[in-house]
Amino acid sequence: MSTTLFKLQREHLVHLQSAYATLLADHQLDSLAIYSGHASDHFADDHAASFQTYGHFMHWVGLADVQHSWLMIQPEKRPQLYLYAPADFWHLPTRLPEEPWVAEFDIHLCSDKVAPSLAGKAAIIGDIERLPASTLQSLNAECQPATIVHALDELRLLKTPYEIACLREANRLAIAGHQAAQAAFIGASGELDIQLAYLAASRQRESSVPYQNIIGLNQHAGVLHYQHYDLKAPKQRYSLLVDAGRRFRGYCADITRAYAGPDAPAAFGELVAAMHGLKDELVKGVAPGVSFVALHEQMHHHLAEILIAHELFQGTVEQAVAEGVTRAFCPHGLGHSLGLQVHDVAGLRHPDGTPAPAPENHPALRLTRTLRPGMVVTIEPGLYFIDMLLEPLRNSSLPINWPLIDQLSPCGGIRIEDNVAVTESGFDNLTP
Hints:
Blueprint: H1 3-26, E1 31-35, H2 55-61, E2 70-73, E3 80-84, E4 106-110, E5 122-126, H3 133-139, E6 142-143, H4 146-157, H5 161-186, H6 191-202, E7 214-217, E8 239-248, E9 251-260, H7 266-284, H8 292-309, H9 317-322, H10 325-329, E10 376-379, E11 382-384, H11 387-394, H12 402-408, E12 413-415, E13 418-422, E14 427-429
Parallel strand pairs: 1-5, 3-4, 5-6
Antiparallel strand pairs: 1-2, 2-3, 7-8, 8-9, 10-13, 11-12, 13-14
Helix pairs in contact: 1-5, 5-6, 7-8
């Protein structure tokens, strides 16, 4: 780890210590314990599903695979890390890296699954639902107080310089994977081989990705969270959509690119270029004080312009938006908050923790906040040819160019996604 990154991380930990001390004082708490969580075994088996450390624990420690461990925070005291590290010849025990930040904690290596002794009035948060009832009772603490969790979610919404640096590095590592995926597509690989090329180039195993990579060829590019990898390459290559990420010190990159294949109609390649332009235009709109809902609505306005310019819709921009045409072509939100979780916390709450739900017309929108410096968001406009969404429009009198849509449908769809930090004066695109 570079000296600069450690300096930023130390400042990040000092920031957390101060913020937590204020929060504990405001709620008249003497200590707060954060449980890391643990993986669940598959039914009747001793193999577990993939695991991700509880976010507020990871906010301090920066390791995404710590299990059965506790972090105790007390005002004006060093954080106490109770790290579960049993003697085990079946698995390699958890080990802390040999990095300077470890010295900022008091480390307790625990061979057994133990809970810390909490001083005074205490609260515990984390993935605690599956802990034994006896463990929770022994802690004698308030469990999962909503006001505490919401306040810590709000703290995570605004990233420190250290967190921005980690997100930038996660993007750099993910981009290497995206370049390899594009090369594999050019080489006529199938979905599984494109996925393997991505993992190799981004230097990660599949269980370590921040979310299941979406590798969709042809019509699969129109399945928003496509979850399979065909083993064989299709005979015709119309399109590829790659929505894939990478972690760095717990922080997530979430990047999407779409490509026209050699068998795609020329109009599809033109639409891919147009969606890149739309993404760039929306990124330029990221700035402090901007409503993300308004930015999302701006996406629909510009998407209508693209539909008209490329002869998919032959009415007006206002008609395309008001009649739900753009929503049929793009049913998801413009983006979301990004951090230790891909869909990071606090996006649908006001700063005081009260709900800030998505608008009725845009129920899939995951972020309704006014942008502030320190936020990191994704900007991901899309344009898809999804039969179940377009079918209701076929029975309308709207001026839609159905022959062209039918010609483009084998291509599935387009999504272009960058990760963008909000700065004091505008934006910083973390996805070069």
